[in-house]
Design goal:
The structure holds 2 protein chains of 2 kinds. Chain A is α/β, with parallel strands linked by helices. In chain A, 41% of the residues lie in helices and 11% in strands. Chain A contains 12 helices and 8 strands. About 2% of the residues of chain A have low confidence. The longest helix of chain B is centred in the C-terminal third of the chain and has 13 residues. Chain B is mainly alpha-helical. The model of chain B has no long low-confidence stretch (mean pLDDT 92). Chain B has a single domain, classed as Orthogonal Bundle (Fumarate Reductase Iron-sulfur Protein, Chain B, domain 2). The chains are: A alpha/beta, B mainly alpha. Chains A and B meet through helix 8, helix 9 and helix 10 of A and helix 1, helix 5, helix 6 and helix 7 of B.
Chain lengths: 293, 135
């Protein structure tokens, strides 16, 4: 087993528990273990875009100190928002030693962060360290006949300096799905924002965004939409149908799952480890229909 | 990111209002670098909720027009950075939008009217909205 420090973040311990559970099970099949970072704290959620607000970088840096205490240099995140915020902050303090000096001085109860922690997203680990061919060799349930639409959203791709792939034409998820045997469904809206936190401030905007994103995937015949972000998943599920809250019993839209769940399913992970019970639109019927048990 | 080509040729320092200087300071961006190609507005997925297109926000800043301070566009922007990766002049418009929000938020005003919190909404939505839209 190869161990790698892992940052879960809040959603993976709550609404997105299946995202984590499936990741652990899938990685075990691949000989990797996600070693949860001791005493991790909030990533900061959204990266501050102001030039003068060092306070917003304290939370990420505190997590980097935890990694440093383990004598490790890498930290892998699953949630795209955590990945983006942590990775951008790691670059922000690396760019200017004075910023880091002041943050260290502010956190005088902590050992100084020396710099050098590299934040990775799990998709990068799968692509660059484990390798898709290695994954393909371990597929037990090939996803032949399954049409999967990747949804990247923003945080995996932008800005360029933290993007894990081309910001306009990414293929990291498409290639993964194809190595698992599935057909990747392309859509022009796969890199467009789902509405993010506007879901609480201007919900109609998120609803409009999701209609476009899900509509484009539906018109192209997607069986499933796959994400790497609990907020994208929430928006894509909840805003998919009109009056969803009133129609809770009668959902029949396109299921939205995490890439770790699709991977775990293909690797033959047992059903109870896949975390599908947390999905608002059950993906199990379409998986059974296309791929079988 | 495209190389930033400075916009000093367009700048008239003696006529530049304080709020424009402040937006540039907070954002770290040169709003005069924008040459109004409109790529940001064309690719922005939030324009239906905006009263000014992203390129218009930049243009009003260049002109020192205070109407930009009343715009709802910065409050609809969700920092998705579609504009940032496409700007041929390397202007990070999301940072300009954030600076315009901060001018209001740092006076103690809020840009977030709490509605009913939808059941099951992830914490990251609540924390994200609070961090971006409240003082």
């Amino acid at each position: 087993m190869t161990r790698i420090p892992y940052f879960p973040g809040c959603a993976l311990k709550d609404q997105a528990a299946g995202f984590e559970r499936a990741a652990r099970a899938a990685l075990e099949k691949l000989g990797w273990e996600l070693a949860e970072l001791p005493r991790w704290n909030c990533c900061g959620t959204v990266y501050s875009l102001s030039s003068d607000d060092l306070m917003r970088h304290v939370a990420p840096v505190r997590n980097f100190i935890r990694v440093q205490e383990l004598g490790e240099e890498k930290l892998v995140a699953l949630c795209a928002m955590c990945y983006n915020t942590l990775r951008r902050s790691s670059l922000f303090v690396a760019e200017d030693p004075e910023r880091l000096r002041r943050i260290n001085a502010f956190m005088d109860e902590e050992p100084d962060y020396e710099g050098g922690v590299e934040v990775l997203h799990l998709l990068q680990l799968l692509r660059d360290e484990i390798g898709y061919e290695e994954i393909e060799a371990k597929v037990e349930r090939p996803l032949y006949g399954l049409r999967v639409a990747p949804y990247y959203g923003c945080m995996l791709l932008r800005p360029r300096e933290v993007g894990i792939d081309d910001p306009d034409r990414p293929e990291v998820m498409e290639l993964l799905f194809e190595y698992l045997g599935a057909e990747a469904v392309d859509s022009p809206h796969k890199v467009e924002c789902c509405g993010a936190y506007q879901t609480v401030s201007n919900p109609w905007i998120a609803r409009e965004r999701v209609r476009e994103i899900v509509g484009a995937a539906a018109r192209r015949g997607a069986d499933l939409i796959v994400t790497s972000c609990p907020l994208c998943t929430y928006n894509l599920e909840q805003h998919q149908l009109p009056n969803t809250r009133e129609e809770k019993g009668a959902r029949n839209g396109i299921p939205v799952i995490y890439f770790t769940q699709l991977l775990a399913f293909a690797l033959g992970v047992q059903d109870e480890e896949l975390g599908f019970e947390g999905a608002a639109i059950d993906p199990r019927p379409v998986l059974a229909q296309r791929v079988g048990g | 990111m495209a190389e930033v080509i400075k916009g000093d040729a367009l700048r008239i320092p003696s006529r530049e209002p304080e709020f424009v200087r402040r937006v540039e300071e907070l954002s770290g961006e040169d709003v005069f670098a924008c040459y109004q190609c409109g790529k940001c507005s064309a690719g922005c997925p939030f324009t239906t909720g905006m009263d000014l297109l992203p390129a218009e926000v930049l243009r009003l800043l260049q002109l020192g027009d205070e109407r930009v301070l009343e715009s709802r566009s910065p409050w609809v922007c969700a920092s998705c950075l579609a504009c940032e990766v496409r700007c041929p002049k390397g202007v990070d418009i999301a940072k300009v939008m954030e600076a315009l929000r901060l001018l209001v938020l740092r006076k103690g005003e809020t840009g977030l009217t709490w509605r009913e919190i939808p059941p099951g909404v992830p914490q990251i939505a609540l924390v994200g909205a609070t961090r971006k839209l409240t003082p």
